[in-house]
Amino acid sequence: xxxxxxxxxxxxxxxxxxxxxxxxxxxxxxxxxxxxxxxxxxxxxxxxxxx
Length: 51
Description:
- Helix content is 35%, strand content 0%.
- It is mainly α.
- It has one domain.
């Protein structure tokens, strides 16, 4: 399953592809692992509004 992810191009901020805005609600005890994993996939861009 992960093999097809390796063939995808890297994301960048300036692109014309359609994007979808989603909100993730992740339990505190698994948040670091989940965000790290999703970041390594390179399929998401994160926006942290909690400051």
